[in-house]
Amino acid sequence: MPWWGWIVIGAVLMGSEMFVATDFYLAVLGAAALSLGLIGSTGLELPVWGQWGTFGVLSVLYLVVFRRRIYQRFGPSGEDTESIVGEVATMQERIEAGRQGRAELRGSVWTVENTGDGPLEEGERARVEGVTGLTLSVRAETGS
To answer: Which residues, including other chains, have CB under 8 Å from residue 72's CB and lie 6 or more apart?
Structure first.
């Protein structure tokens, strides 16, 4: 394949990332294709099997080295989940202090961690104090 073909493939993959939510996998594969195109533009000619092999190696290398960094920098910011801090969740099971369990909030079941001093009983209400990933930190609601 000519070097410009890899540039086109890379541009299509990177452009597709805007329309398909793949958590930056297509963007990283596109970067690997663009890199191969740039290598080819220097005059280094590889056989077709060498081009595909190099694309595979670059893809895996970029996925391992760069994808997580790109996702952390440009991925979801967590602003939507931060808006639930201060809301009240209902426990779906007994949760000991410092342990995790399940609670219902806004019609969805969440993983929650009891950050209070005592256990939370099934059906008890607890206030969300923080969000870490998809885990909510909760403490028993005082003065219902």
So the answer is: none
Q: How far is CA 132 from CA 63, 78, 82, 129, in A?
A: 24, 9, 9, 10
Note the maximum CA span of the chain. 74
Out of 44, 74, 104, pick the residue that ends a domain.
74
CATH number for position 114? 2.40.50.140
Q: How far apart are CA 51 and CA 107, in angstroms?
A: 50
Residues 19 and 68 in one domain: yes
CB 91 within 8 A of CB 126: yes
Q: Do 59 and 91 share a structural domain?
A: no
Give per-residue pLDDT as tens, 96-132: 999 999 999 988 899 999 999 999 999 999 999 988 8
**Structural domain span for residue 26:** 3-74
Query: What local confidence, expressed as pLDDT, does residue 24 receive?
Result: 83
Q: What is the mean pLDDT of residues 57-62?
A: 95
The 10s digit of each residue's pLDDT in 47-58 is 999 999 999 999
When divided into structural domains, the chain yields a total of: 2
